[in-house]
Amino acid sequence: MFSIFKKNKKINVNFAAFLGQDMHSHILPGIDDGAPDTDTSIALIRGMMSAGIKNFIGTPHIMADIHRNTRETITAAYDKLQKALIANNMNINVKFAAEYMIDEGFPDHLKAGNLLTVFDNKILVETPFYHEPIDIEDVLFQIETAGYQAILAHPERYHFIDDKLKVLDKYLDRDIALQLNILSLSGYYGSREKEVANRLLDAGLYRFVGSDLHHGRHLNRITNMVLDRKVVDKLEKLAWENQQIRDFVPSV
């Protein structure tokens, strides 16, 4: 349940205590636009631990021409972080996967197989924010036929999704799970993103929730987040699937 402090109609929300498992974060050091080094990784993890998070999955970006990460670069960053955790006497469960951009390089990753999964056969994917890939339906079919199930990261942030949410039908028809960025509900990304997040929440379409933690600004907002009581009530009623991830061990 949420750890809450009631004040009028607003509630100070401890999202970490609600789930324990953060399945989307950028805490692995030095390989994308998240933590630049192990010191920052440690600071971010400490901050989230103080808020109640007990398990983390680092999901660095894999993007063509921007973040050309591979299983090897991600494993190396993970190993570096594990050494830093030991050196700081931090007994915390950190795992790794990836956040795959559906771009011109993604079909090659899919064809090669052996993708980094969040758990079981589930991969975390994203699309460009301002346009939906023109071949998205074919890509979704390829993901399915390759034996994977997709979790679509932060759909509320995609500007091709309108207030009627119809564009999401093609994803939902293939049982693609939707993952909420908790910060979207606070208006951190903007009023439009907040509105769409609330519409998706009202419709009960989210199945996962994550921090998408990149830096100290995210950490500060997450650990001091205040939401309307009605929003918190909706969050509490959904059957979040994050707890399924707890015992998953990634293959290296």
Describe the protein's architecture and organization:
With 252 residues, this protein is of the alpha/beta class. The chain has a single domain, classed as TIM Barrel. It has helices spanning 15-19, 38-50, 71-87, 106-112, 136-145, 169-172, 191-202, 216-223, 229-237; strands at 3-7, 10-14, 21-25, 55-58, 61-62, 93-96, 99-101, 122-126, 149-153, 177-181, 206-210, 226-228. The strands form three sheets. It has a six-stranded parallel sheet, with helices on one face. A three-stranded antiparallel sheet has the order 1-2-12. A three-stranded parallel sheet has the order 3-4-6, covered by helices on one side. Helix 2 (38-50) packs across helix 3 (71-87). The protein is globular and about 50 Å long. The model is unreliable at 1-8 (pLDDT under 50).
The first-to-last residue Cα distance is: 33 Å
What CATH calls the topology is TIM Barrel
Give the SSE order as H and E letters. EEHEHEEHEEHEHEHEHEHEH
Gyration radius, in Å: 17 Å
Number of helices: 9
Shape verdict:
globular
Helix coverage percent:
25-40%
Mean pLDDT comes to: 90
- Biggest beta sheet attributes: 6 strands, parallel
- Second-tier CATH architecture: Alpha-Beta Barrel
Can you say what the CATH homologous superfamily is? Metal-dependent hydrolases
% residues in beta strands: 15-25%
Q: Which regions have little confidence, pLDDT < 50, spanning 5+ residues?
A: 1-8
Total beta strand runs: 12
- Helix/strand-derived class? alpha/beta
CATH class: Alpha Beta
Count of distinct structural domains: 1
Strand order of the largest sheet: 5-7-8-9-10-11
